[in-house]
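Module 6 notes. Inverse folding takes a fixed backbone as the condition and produces residue identities as the prediction. Think of it as a translation problem where the source language is geometry and the target language is the twenty amino acids. Below is one complete input and output pair. Work through it position by position during the lab.
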């Protein structure tokens, strides 16, 4: 079973699919888990307050959504 620690985090100033430059002051946080790749946009200054582990946890929620019954 996957854990958030398995997520590979990359930060990018370009959109992962289109290659367009991210709006000023923003960064794409890209996560890869196995063969799945997801990302979200974040204000760059918020990255200073977050650890790599925080980013992994956030991406894990997107990459590996828990099914709620």
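Target side of the pair, the amino acids:
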């Amino acid at each position: 079973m996957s854990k958030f620690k398995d997520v590979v985090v990359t930060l990018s100033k370009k959109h992962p699919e289109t290659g367009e430059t991210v709006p000023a002051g923003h960064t794409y946080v890209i996560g890869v888990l196995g063969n799945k790749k997801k990302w979200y946009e974040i204000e760059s200054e918020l990255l200073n307050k977050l650890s790599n582990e925080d980013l992994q946890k956030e991406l894990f929620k997107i990459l590996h959504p828990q099914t709620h019954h």
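Reference fact for the lab report: The mean pLDDT is 94.
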